[in-house]
Amino acid sequence: MTEAGVDAVLDYALRGNQIDFTHTYVPESLRGRGIAEQLVRAGLAWAREQDYQIEASCWYVDKFLKREAQHG
Q1: 3-state SS, residue 69
Q2: For the chain, first and last CA: distance in Å?
Q3: When comparing pLDDT for 3 and 64, which is higher?
Q4: Which residue among 11, 17, 52, 53 sits deepest, i.e. has the most Cβ atoms within 10 Å of its Cβ?
Q5: CATH architecture label of 2-71
Q6: pLDDT at 72 (0 to 100)
């Protein structure tokens, strides 16, 4: 995602049918706007559409997965 000429990213690694979200980064100038959450939600939705097995090395993505598991 690019806004105001700077990039926010959600890094991932693909291994067969498995995706590992490895890192989320939002530049300081864009923080506090919910951009990381938007990236993660879009990334997880895309991964599910592709039928990937999802893992998260990134603590921020892992937080979303745990929250989803708790709320079914």
Answers
A1: helix
A2: 29
A3: 64
A4: 52
A5: 3-Layer(aba) Sandwich (3.40)
A6: 66
* Burial of residue 24, with CB atoms counted within 10 A of its CB: 0-12 exposed, 13-18 middle, 19 or more buried: buried
Query: What's the CA gap between 59 and 34, in Å, rounded?
Result: 16
The structure tokens 């890192």 sit at 23
Closest CA to 28 of 43, 11, 6, 12: 6
Q: Tell me: the pLDDT tens digits for 5-60?
A: 778 999 999 999 999 999 999 999 889 999 999 999 999 999 999 999 999 999 99
Domain boundaries, the chain: 2-71
Alpha-carbon gap, residue 56 to 9, rounded angstroms: 15
